[in-house]
Amino acid sequence: MSTGSVSVADEGKPLEDGSFQATTVDVLVHGTFSAHEEWKHLFLPYDLEPTTRRLHHNTEVVRTAHCRARGLPGLLGDCNWFTDSGDIQHVTAFGIPGAASHLQERESRCDAVATSGVMGL
Fold first, then answer.
1. Longest dimension (CA), the chain
2. What pLDDT digit, counting tens, does each position of 15-27 carry?
3. What mean pLDDT do residues 21-44 have?
4. Are 67 and 113 in contact (CB under 8 A)?
């Protein structure tokens, strides 16, 4: 397990212009921050260990702050998508570039949100 730091808006400290200060949180460096990556916390006793519980909480903070900052009406999650040819493709580009281990800004998509995006919350 490896960790990294991600900067997010700290909504508890509004600035005079109405924006928020940035704060840094530690998260697991993994996948795309899709909801399905956090399901393990719902079924296995990972949250009994304080460090794992803190990392899981911080991941959800990053996911919600990312979508709120972009005005998205929901949370991102991997999904199956129909291609122009009618084939179904599993899309993993609905994630957080920079925070994710492999997703680059130019590859990132936010043109759809997943109903399963809130599952981890």
1. 50
2. 677 676 777 888 8
3. 76
4. yes
If you search the block for the tokens 């809130």, which residue do you land on?
118
Structure tokens at 37: 């990556």
The single-letter code of the amino acid at 103 is L
Phi/psi for 21 (5° steps) reads -65, 155
User: How many CA atoms lie less than 13 Å away from 58 in the CB half-sphere?
Assistant: 20
CA–CA dist 62, 59 (Å, integer): 5
Burial, 5: exposed, middle or buried (Cβ in 10 Å; 0-12, 13-18, 19+)?
Answer: exposed
Q: Which two tokens stand for residue 80?
A: 């199956």
pTM over 0.85: no
The number of helices, as runs of H, and strands, as runs of E, in the chain is 2, 4
The pair phi, psi for residue 79, each rounded to 5°, is -155, 170
C-alpha span between 2 and 25 (Å, rounded): 14
